[in-house]
């Protein structure tokens, strides 16, 4: 759309196109690190919702791009900068939403709830593709009448629609109470909480998700307000002041991950996410290659027809791949376990990438669509609450680093060595990802806080 608004249908400058594509992912790396550490240091309640406020502000600034007042290149720079700010907010949501969900879930349903959370990315892609088609249909007569510059309104409306769910959930995020699990685990190392005591609190927040009656909700709110107003009575001679505990947080973080048994898990989640996103975003940020192969690249017809073909191709890919893929995980995650699903996912992705790479120029359209569609949680569950958001943020940031590499290198590498060779590189990343998954423990039914408490107790006995 920006091609028609800014460059009369010609291609965007390659450098600026890469910046606009990579901007959100660059911001995500920053957001995942900063919000992850902030959530562990200040608490979930103090941070949750702030990332959504940043998303809302950056979205408004993005759709306010003064394309009529700036040069074409200047308009792209504006959009790229605000997409980077938007990425900071989106990146912050990764560790925040995953941590908050994990801390309010039964062990036996934790994986399912996390899978539901991330499945909404697939629904978002589907709704985005549908919205683009609908808005384009509304602009059809105007654009086919010769005024292709009006396409400027299409992308602004489509992006602006994301403000509806953002504003719709902002109040709930800002008023969400701190999880009991987070409060209890902050005492580990400061108080001599027994392992059995912590186990008994494993599902302490499940009641907060059970809104069966208004009465129970009101009683809960009243008890929370009383608890907030009444200072807790520390156990005799064992509780550290809050400020001292906060100051010790970073020391505890580095001490925890200085042990190889913990570091190898962090390395596993970081490397797996990095390798996955090289392949995942390498394909998805360059869907024009795929759309060209299945006949929806928008290379022929009027400007409106070209754009509508691209939107239709995006809808097909999303409907066939993303949404079914997420729900296959939702339905099987508690039966098969996270480790086995992740290994299977990498190997299946590698299989279909190999088919695409080997038969890139000979596959029929139907075969190509099926292979690409089939191409399409771990950190939140494997780390203790005390370090969960930071470790999840670091893992997600590693993934976005892979996405940035793909966004910046795909086009130039494709021109030098060909698209099939790029797909073989992605195949290698998926095989390596399956291998690094074996650094990780199975987390089904595993409570990392109990394990951490046991380790602290064992260390205190020596």
Q: Summed up, what is this model?
A:
It comes from Hermanssonia centrifuga. By secondary structure, the chain is an all-alpha fold. Helix content is 76%, strand content 0%.
What does this structure look like?
The protein has a single domain, classed as Up-down Bundle (Growth Hormone, Chain: A), CATH 1.20.1250. The relative contact order is 0.14. It has helices at 2-6, 14-42, 44-47, 50-63, 72-102, 110-138, 140-144, 151-160, 163-174, 180-185, 195-200, 206-209, 214-229, 242-247, 249-257, 260-284, 287-293, 303-336, 338-358, 365-373, 378-382, 385-417, 419-436, 448-461. It is an all-alpha fold. It is globular and about 75 Å long.
The number of helices is: 24
Radius of gyration equals 24 Å
Mean pLDDT: 79
Q: Structural class of the secondary elements?
A: mainly alpha
- CATH topology heading: Growth Hormone, Chain: A
Number of extended strands: 0
Keywords: Membrane, Transmembrane, Transmembrane helix
Pfam families: Sugar_tr (PF00083)
Biased composition (Polar residues): 223-236
Biased composition (Basic and acidic residues): 193-204
